[in-house]
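Chain A, query sequence.
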Amino acid sequence: MHEVASWLHSHHSDGVNLSIKELIYYQAKTSLVNLSPRKTVQAKLAGAYLAKTKGRGMEFDEARHYQAGDDIRAIDWRVTARTGKTHTKIYREEKERPVFVLADLSTSMQFGTQLMFKSVQAAHLAALLAWAARKRGDRIGGLIFNQHQHIECKPFTRQKAVLSLLNSLIKVQTQAIQNPQQAAPAVNKKVTLADACARLRRLAHPGSLIFLLSDFKQLDELAQQHIAQLSKHCEIVAYPISDPFEHQLPTVKTSQRVALTDGVNQQQITLGEKATESRYSEQHQAYFAHMEHTLKQCKAQVVNISAGIPLEQQLNPFSRMSK
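Chain A, predicted structure.
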């Protein structure tokens, strides 16, 4: 417990609420993630990523024999003089790749047993990705939501865009913590993961890199359809965020019954019974395996994240929580 408290203090966090200090911390940790594209960039705007199509970009690709219709300004005179035949310079076209972060801070994400809430870990990861995108010169945008509201952040390249995203994370998390059971306004229905993904389809242009940060408790058929549609034109990286308690019951010396609640529903579970522990672990292992399989079927890359371990330790195996 002392180790956890020390880590939280050094990172300006209490594990439940969010502050701008703890999110700015990740500006110096961008080396923990690699935002290099894994598939062909499809955006139409000029930018910093090389596409397979050939045109008049800034990156030289090859020289080939001159063909009728080629721009005479692209003639490679050195190769032409050396070979005695007219050659044209061909450039690999540069294209832009906006980065979008979808962060789920809804009710099921307001849970944590060891280090921090899943929602706080999602915010830390969102901050890390945003700072990494800014460092590469990418435009960064996002969609932050809980069950009552959502905030859309249009993509920009300036630091202002990152700070806008961070402040949106703080605003939505604060609302979720202070009013966990507040009814949504009568004119608005409850915001779901499917709703957020549908909005993201309107925000994200082809060629975007999209990060989905959620526990995916709401990964229903409609949400799957939206993610699958997004993956046809964008690169999708899904970060399922879970708490250690969701994988395995805590070990206790003597058998005891404990009450659990999500704020609305209540149930009891017995700790210290081998049969109960085994059944619990098997059921949840099957659940998470199914979730991962479903996301991969939607053509998303899957990277599992725990809310009970610092990001530095998970994304960089050589880093350890300071003692």
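DSSP finds nine helices and twelve strands in the chain. The longest helix spans residues 274-297.
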